[in-house]
Predict the structure.
Amino acid sequence: MAYHQRSASAPSSPRSNKPEIEQQLQRLSTTIFSPSATIDTTCDGLRKLEGIYKCIEEMMCKPSNQVSLCQSLQRTALEAELGRSLVLLDLCNAVQGSFMELKMSVQELLFALRRGDDASFQVKAYIRLSKSAQKQFKKISKKAVSENECRVVMLMAEAREITISLLESTCGLLSKEVEMPKCSLISKTFQKTKFVCEEEQLRALERSIGDLETGVELLYRRLIQNRVSLLNTLSS
């Protein structure tokens, strides 16, 4: 599965920009919670989310919006989003670390396969790592903003909530790659602790994790740029 870097194009004016971003956020939310969600759709979601953040940043940097954002009430909400942006960056870092560990676990599965060893230990390690990655999301509180905030702040909050949900969904999908009987990389034999690994499927999983790493890295860089723009707006 090839991962292609693209960004959602931003409409030319704020009037046409806002509805388009809202539609993209709504579609992303639907995709995340869909029972048919896959790693492919998640990679696509990360790419679209990176583009959405770019559009929000462009809106935030418009002189007319900067004037409204620096007003007392909006400034308070903007400062709150600035603090939450650090939580989001830390979460992206943690997820990237989890991806690295999962790739190493898949590589260990491949080695066991080539040696003809019982891979049950490696399978359990992979499942444990993927579930451990999911636990970190329980510590994250999704804090929405009130309807009194300006649209730019509300869009930032909506994008933040969807980002957390998408990253959480990603870790869940990686866990299911092993656990689901029909689509699993590991198929059980008659003995419970005995597994038969298919190298081609393990290679596909390794590539998928790599694609997800790329997507989260691009998102991470965009979030840093957004944070810089936030700081610039607050200091103006």
Remarks:
- The chain is about 75% helix and 5% strand.
- Strands lie at 186-188, 195-197.
